[in-house]
Amino acid sequence: MSQETDRTLYGRVFHRNVCWQRSYERAEGEELLMALYGSLRNGLYNNRRFDLQNRSEFLGTIKIDGYSLYSLGPYPAVYPSEKGSVVAEVRRFSGKRQLEVAKSIDYMELFGGYHREYVDLELPEKKLRGIIYVYDEKPETEVIDHGDWARYLKEKELPE
């Protein structure tokens, strides 16, 4: 491995650690709202793994403008985009037990190359503020124009 490669790898690891630390410097409060667009959506792999049906409150499915959805193979990424939008499920995590699940999701995402961004979540009759996990670098992979990961998996006949 060349010295240049080492610096690049170190830089990414350092960046992820800084992002993770910053996310926990913020006051957590008594609840956390997340806009989940990939494998954490209802019926998909990480949703089942974290048992989100029983460990969070589903508030609804929305479309969030300003992001494009990309396929990274077995999972997706979003990245800021002027003309894109992404379909996401809004989930509320409250109470000690549910916030522990949220922390586990946060850990998985932040060390997987994502960071938190706060977004407005417009549900019917409610406007809330929550987080979405955004990929650290713009993916050089397939853009999913309709912005719906669950639909993409069905269209491509890929495992959920």
UniProtKB/TrEMBL annotation:
InterPro entries: AIG2-like_dom (IPR009288), GGCT-like (IPR013024), GGCT-like_sf (IPR036568)
Protein name per UniProt: Gamma-glutamylcyclotransferase
Source domain of life: Archaea
Record-linked Pfam families: GGACT
Gene3D superfamilies xref list: Gamma-glutamyl cyclotransferase-like
Record domain Gamma-glutamylcyclotransferase AIG2-like: where: 36-150
Keywords: Transferase
GO MF annotation terms: transferase activity
